Amino acid sequence: MKEGRNLEGSNLHFEELACGSNQLTFDYLEKKLKEILGVSKLTDDILRTFGFYNGEKQYNIAAALFADDNKFSGIDMARFGHSISEIMDRETYSGISVLKQYDMAVTMYERYYQYDKIDGINRRKVDIIPEKAFREAVANALVHRTWDNNPHIRISMFADRIEIASPGGLPKGLTKEEYINGFISDLRNPIVANVFFRLRLIEMFGTGIKRIKEAYNGATRQPSFEVTDNAVFVVLPSFTTTYEITTDNKKVIEALKDGMRLSSSEIADKLDWSKAKTIRALNTLHTSGYIKRKGNGRGTTYSIN
Fold this sequence. Notes:
Blueprint: H1 3-7, H2 27-37, H3 44-50, H4 61-66, E1 75-80, E2 87-93, H5 98-113, E3 114-119, E4 122-127, H6 131-144, E5 153-157, E6 161-167, H7 176-180, H8 190-198, H9 208-214, E7 224-227, E8 231-237, H10 247-255, H11 264-271, H12 275-287, E9 291-294, E10 301-304
Parallel strand pairs: 1-5
Antiparallel strand pairs: 1-2, 3-4, 5-6, 6-8, 7-8, 9-10
């Protein structure tokens, strides 16, 4: 069932439709309620408060997403080596509660991007990529993605960055600028968002991008956000890795000095390069967080981050 085609003109969200099963269990949800909110037992009243029933008193799709077993896609995580052809580790979490997906994704993040550092007699945790930013990005992906199509949320893990791709693009009527600035007035999945909010996994509706940016305050390399019709992409760069910039990439940065904002064609003309070579350099610098990109298509421009 396609969300836009079948629900257009109605007041329903896809998550409000009946899931087709009344045999759902919520052991993991109950565990999280006990851990975070001190709830002694998950009751039918709590499920109703969360909005897990439709008008016919049937479990809806939002309920299924938080159930221990379901038929929905989830998160596909891969840790890459020196190239995308070298997969060092891979985990796929699907058909389980979105809360468990979230926790398992954080566990895999901790495996590769946190370590303990000893200072004298003190031990402290060090983030290679800020945990706060990763948690926000994954929670945002689960809360705002479309659930009526099959692709997984894809999390690609590299030594110098994490890339998160969430299916579905932005909700209808929401621009990229509104999304990045936190102006989300019409949530795609308000029931899912409300449960994440009550469990303190998101702070306020629409503030996730701001909180990701706050986690990088003062950092040389900043996160980047891209939006297409079919997906939202977030890139979280590393704090600590030292990056080598090639001579060609230095020329691009030099071309963008003094706050200049240029198109790829203008940069190619300025450097007397081919368009293909220019685009390759721009993509590398953008992914590494050195430059930022604005606009789409022929209107795309680049500037130093």
